[in-house]
Here is the input.
Amino acid sequence: MTSPEQSADSEPSTTSLANRYGAKKRRLSPAAKRTIAGAALAAGIGFMAWVSTSNSLNDVSFKDIGYVTTDATLAEVDFQVTREPGTSVQCAVKALDSKFAVVGWKVVDIPPSEANGTADGGRSVSQRVPVRTESLSVSGVVDSCWIPGDSGR
Here is the structure.
């Protein structure tokens, strides 16, 4: 339908298009886009810094040092654990056979240590753990270490 003032060939007016489809959307200015991008970048950097520092605060690491197979029923595993001096830790130690099957398993409690008298402030502690085996083992390693009761495990 056309109005009497408007012929069928003429272009519809911009006001009738705005009435029909809504007004044109306003675009963000370049300054507003830069501000939003800068805020998002700062938030991302802040989040990454928080994640990296929160993980390092309760971090427990371990290093396998060696093993000794005494006989077919016993292996001894040597390892080092690094954690905060006043923190107790649990570690799962396993003995493996020649096909990498687990032939012995033990969870070890490592009590908190004193921060005095050591070069690293009591963060690292060496352990030798005997592990009972069901057959001859050819390797002994630490599977994992964690802080007891820590839900982040």
User: Anything to note?
Assistant: The longest helix spans residues 30-57. The chain has a mean pLDDT of 83. The chain is about 25% helix and 35% strand.
